[in-house]
Amino acid sequence: MRKLLYIITLALVPMVSIGQITVNNAEDFSIGTVLRFQKCDSKEVSEGNSGVNQTWDFTTLKTIADTTIEWMVLPNETENSSSFPNANLVEKYSDGRFVYANKTQNENYLVGFIDAASKMTMNYTKPMLFAKRPMTFGTVVTDSFATKYTMNAMDFEGKGVVTIEADGYGKLILPNGTYNNVLRIKITQTQNDVLKQYSTKTKTTTISYVWFDGVHTSCLLKINMTKSGYYNKKSVEYLLSEKKE
What we know:
The structure is a single chain. The chain is mostly beta strands. It has one domain. It is built from one helix and 15 strands; from the N terminus they run αβββββββββββββββ. β6 and β7 form a beta hairpin. The longest helix is centred in the N-terminal third of the chain and has 18 residues, at about 1-20.
């Protein structure tokens, strides 16, 4: 009887392994890729549960009359490339944001950020890890980063920790389609900043949930929540298209 149970147990092990989802190409963008996202009303939107064999149903998302377009371009195609010499990829947003990244085979690091609307220019004196490949359910990666930036003519310095965790897999249902074998990744950033002119200290926490299907390099859905002593902000967007130009 013990031998029979042992054989049955061995037979079940591969089934458990097969059931887990691995994503190999998350954020593995190439130059010329263009992404288009639909913005949504973030009120009363929950990220849902973590764990195995989840069904995340977002069919009731309320869209707003706005979209976001992202272009993957070379740094020398932007005006501020000289400020971020270690960047080899830039995510150029239709709202005036520029994300300067250093992309390797297995990781993406954030080295710089420009936001025209808030007049912010941020330099990562210690780059921040924001994408890891491959990712499998249960994978947890933690890293530290440091920043120096200006916003509205004020100077800041900051240090933080980022944790990237693949916390669930299952089915994702969006207004424009249903996706199976999807891996959800939770990214938590905690940053402590000092305003140099007044020595004022602030703490900011950003939690992002992103869903990947292993086919698209882009996430299919992203929910971002940022909290600090001054403001709370939440945004929801889902992918409309990913193409190469």
